[in-house]
Structures are given as C-alpha cells and as structure tokens.
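Render this sequence as a predicted structure.
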Amino acid sequence: MKKYMIERDLPNIGDASADDLKAAAQKSSAALAELGPDVQWLHSYVTPNKTVCVYAATGEDMILKHAELSGFPASVITEVKCMIDVTTGA
C-alpha cells in the first residue's frame, strides 16, 4: 500500500475538546470499517485550522471514499514517496 498525507481544512479544530476529537476519531474509524482493509488511518496532527492525517491506502480513490463516508474533507491529498529522519544523515 502507498502512504498519503491528507490535509483537512477544519476551521478552529485546534480548539476542539478531547471529547470532540474522540467523536471525530470514532466517526473516521466507522467509515474505515465500512471500507475494509484497503485504507488504514495511521495518525493525524491537529493544527489550529486543519488536520494533517497520514494514511496507508491502495490508491487515492480510497482516501476520497473515506472522506465522503466520514464527512471530513480531503482538501489536499499528497502521496508520500519516502520518509527521512535524523538517522538518514547518520
């Protein structure tokens, strides 16, 4: 599967309560359960006005299906080609 970064424009999401974020995660997970193993949510970063989510999926079409089912926008979808970190330069 390929990895994707999904930017979701969600105004004021950074002010969401823990309960609101829990409900959002549950809604996303329910959509993933419907779609099956071809799309997996790995993790997300919450910023003041958007989330940046990292997913594994067989293709961009699965990311779009998840966005439609969950009701969370997929404002920008970018395929991750590789990952580097501090150990890359060692």
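Summary. The chain is about 30% helix and 30% strand. The radius of gyration is 14 Å.
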